[in-house]
From TrEMBL:
This is Flagellar basal-body rod protein FlgF. The keyword DNA damage does not apply. It comes from the Bacteria. The gene is flgF. Residues 199-241 form the Flagellar basal-body/hook protein C-terminal domain. Its main location: other. Belongs to the flagella basal body rod proteins family. Pfam families: Flg_bb_rod, Flg_bbr_C, LlgE_F_G_D1. Keywords: Bacterial flagellum, Cell projection, Cilium, Flagellum. It is found in: Bacterial flagellum basal body.
Length: 247
């Protein structure tokens, strides 16, 4: 009896974990540059005295869906999208380097170039700082950031930095709790001159909302089935206890 209850209990718990993954994906269906989390379940044997006969399920998120999202043209000078494979290097909260595909940029009152999440964009020599005041900013396909100082004529354009673009291979990346990707080795990826940008556009989320909704419905049905199994185990236990009292 306890085997049935244990399997149903662990299955219901992991269904809830899978629901959380799908719900997070669905919540980020409109987040620029977001890569959907993947979830998988596998059987794990329980170890310890009297436990080798117990097997429980475990849901894990081994990786993300690295397929490109739709390119949305905005016409905004500070919007960029990575063309094909590659990533934009940014500075994480702890001062290290991380990678993202979110390319809706802006600059703060100190001139630091940031994305829409407030994360500083990295150049070849650290975070990019624009010389204020400026009238116009242009970002080329190879990541060169050029500015026109305030009051300058239209033909005056000065190159100030190059956005660090990398392509370390998606199989070498892992997502952190802050949603940014990093190399599994903990090192910084080298700049890759072959990574190109699309100016005046951003990459949308690659989440398939319909797929995530169907997945959530399926997981809810599985959760209900696990709960029914637990109720059945309880009913069987009561029936067994009643038979013992009769005998």
């Amino acid at each position: 009896m306890d085997k049935l209850l244990y399997v149903a209990m662990s299955g219901a718990k992991q269904n809830m974990n899978s629901l959380a993954v799908s719900a997070n994906n669905l919540a980020n269906a409109n987040t620029d540059g977001f890569k959907a989390n993947l979830a998988q379940a596998r059987s794990m044997q329980a170890f310890g005295e009297g436990l080798p006969t117990r097997v429980f399920s475990m849901t894990e998120t081994p990786s993300a869906n690295f397929s490109s999202g739709p390119i949305k043209t905005t016409g905004r000078d500070l919007d960029i999208a990575v063309k094909g494979d590659g990533w934009i290097a940014v500075q994480s909260e702890n001062g290290g380097e991380a990678y993202t595909r979110s390319g809706s940029l802006r600059f703060d009152h100190t001139g630091v170039l940031r994305n829409d999440r407030g994360t500083a964009v990295m150049g070849d020599n650290g975070p990019i700082v624009l010389p204020l005041p400026i009238e116009k900013v242009e970002i080329s396909q190879d990541g060169i950031v050029s500015v026109r100082p305030s009051g300058a004529t239209a033909e005056v354009i000065e190159e100030v930095a190059r956005i660090k673009l990398v392509n370390p291979g998606n199989e070498n990346l892992m997502r952190g709790e802050d949603g940014l990707f990093r190399l599994m080795s903990g090192e910084n990826a080298p700049a890759d001159v072959n990574v190109g940008l699309v100016s005046g556009a951003v990459e949308g989320s690659n989440v398939n909302a319909v797929h995530e909704m169907v997945s959530m419905i399926d997981l809810q049905r599985q959760f209900e089935m696990q709960v029914k199994m637990m109720k059945t185990a309880e009913e069987n236990d009561r029936a067994s206890s009643a038979l013992m009292r009769i005998s």
